Amino acid sequence: MKEEFMELLYENQGIVHKICNLYFRDRLAKEDYHQELIIQLWKAFPSFNNTAKFSSWMYRVCINAAIDIKRKEKNQLKYVKLSEARPATLTDNNRTENIQQEQLYQVISKLSDVDRAIITLYLDEYNYREIAEIIGISESNAGVKINRIKSRIIKSFEHGDA
After folding, report:
1. Residue 61 in contact with residue 135, Cβ under 8 Å?
2. pTM of the full predicted structure?
């Protein structure tokens, strides 16, 4: 069972990274929560029954764990060291791409937890049915929410909110 989990986790490790980048802004928090999400995946792995794709199941577990962490975080005081508050420097080669990606992450991070999960799945090319199944809403509701979220993101970029 451990070998199967490790293989599936390795094949889908980008999901954990993506959820951490979208839900957690601080670099150190991302590292801690990355580990926490993997622990939650391991704990939930016995419930994986192959009726859905592993990646869909993994998204569901990671999103739910991230939302739980964010809820707990809201009730705690935060202390940020000034050295951690400065943005990391980027190389010229990837600067534009990284800035655009960071701007998109910034806009997405301002969405509600559910909307953030929906647009993340959409950007990973999940179809409306799969998104609806993972989030627990109807397929038509998923479509409506995706269109509204895309409109909000576009407006954010047009107004320079990114």
Report:
1. no
2. 0.61
